[in-house]
């Protein structure tokens, strides 16, 4: 009930779509309790989630960000804020970000 109260838009989606997003969340290493604290996750597109996590993983591998950022920290900010706060922490970050955007756009 709290999740619906906090993010009523999630009710506009099919059960299959919600289940797919939950499965993706778990495959990224997050738990259902993370979803309970950030139910708006279910409102974001799979493209956005995939792009953000590909970049986040790349940044972690290159020591530019710490592991364990909150789900909302990675997903909720605008692209511009994400670039400023995280992508630009690595000298090659902007190029990788652009390459990932092009790669993801061709798949969706």
Describe this structure in words.
With 108 residues, the protein is mainly α. It has helices at 2-6, 15-27, 32-37, 46-61, 71-75, 79-85, 93-107. The chain is built from 7 helices and no strands. 14% of the residues are buried. The mean pLDDT is 93.
Structural class: mainly alpha
The protein's oligomeric status is single chain
Number of separate helices: 7
Low-confidence parts lasting 5 or more residues at pLDDT below 50?
Answer: none
3D shape: globular
Helix content: 55-70%
Provide the succession of SSEs. Answer: HHHHHHH
Radius of gyration: 14 Å
How far apart lie the N and C ends?
32 Å
> What is the count of β-strands?
0
Strand composition percent? under 5%
> Biggest β-sheet: count, sense, barrel?
none
Mean pLDDT across the residues is 93
Structure in a nutshell:
The protein is mostly helical and 108 residues long.
Q: What's the SSE blueprint?
A:
Layout: H1 2-6, H2 15-27, H3 32-37, H4 46-61, H5 71-75, H6 79-85, H7 93-107
Helix pairs in contact: 4-7
Question: Main attributes?
Answer:
0% strand; mainly alpha; globular; 108 residues
């Amino acid at each position: 009930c709290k999740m619906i109260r906090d993010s009523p838009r999630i009710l506009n989606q099919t059960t299959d779509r919600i289940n797919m997003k939950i499965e993706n969340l778990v495959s990224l290493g997050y738990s259902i309790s993370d979803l309970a604290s950030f139910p708006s996750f279910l409102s974001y597109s799979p493209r956005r989630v995939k792009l953000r996590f590909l970049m986040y993983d790349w940044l972690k591998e290159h020591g530019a960000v710490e592991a364990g950022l909150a789900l909302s920290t990675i997903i909720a900010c605008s692209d511009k804020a994400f670039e400023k706060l995280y992508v630009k922490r690595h000298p090659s970050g902007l190029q990788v970000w652009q390459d990932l955007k092009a790669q993801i756009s061709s798949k969706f």
